[in-house]
Write a structure and sequence with these properties.
The chain is globular, with a radius of gyration of 16 Å. The longest helix is centred in the N-terminal third of the chain and has 19 residues, at 5-23. 37% of the residues lie in helices and 23% in strands. The two termini are 25 Å apart. The protein has helices spanning 5-23, 35-45, 66-74, 87-97, 133-147, 173-183; strands at 55-59, 79-84, 102-106, 117-122, 148-158, 170-171, 186-190, 197-203. Strands 1, 2, 3, 4, 5, 6, 7 and 8 form an eight-stranded mixed β-sheet that branches. By secondary structure, it is of the alpha/beta class. The mean pLDDT is 91. The chain is built from six helices and eight strands.
Length: 204
Amino acid sequence: MAFCQKDGLKNVASFYNSRFDEFGQNIKSVGWGSVESQQLRFEILFRGLNVKGKTILDVGCGLGDLVAYLDRLTGGSYHYIGIDISERLIADARLRLGQKSREFFLGDIFSLSLPDVDIAVLSGALSFKTKGVENYARETMSKMFSLSNEATSLNFLSKYADYELEKNQHYSPDEVFCWAKKIAAKVNLIHDYPLYEFTVQLIK
């Protein structure tokens, strides 16, 4: 991969490990401003998708907050696989939430041996600015889609924002849409919700 995987992912993992050491079981550990905005992101990721009874892959799962959302959405009828590169976040999520149908693995989507799933999602995991992150984002999207039987859904910080923090990577919606169209024939670009970001769904 063009992305400097070893150094780049190590830096990202160290950042989130230190956030967890500072904030613990709090959305601040994964960089979200509020529970409400996090829940809105989840709603948009699954907009129009049938989730009940499905196997869900959560790339960059953080503290596993998506589990509670899926519980409410499906009544607990789903299988969950969460992966993350942060040792501290995965250890905490596995301790609190891990069970036979709720699995957590340490690593990235390219280093782990993962099964095919129905839906693969990613929320916020590509927002940390580091060398080659755009190439990595494009390759991650492609890998997620190859593992998905039904759909892949990812969100990105948008270039259509009032400001950009130095540590954050913002993306052009037009460019990301073009990436997606080279991978999938059916693509939804969602940029109609009140956050400085957008979501792309790739449909099988």
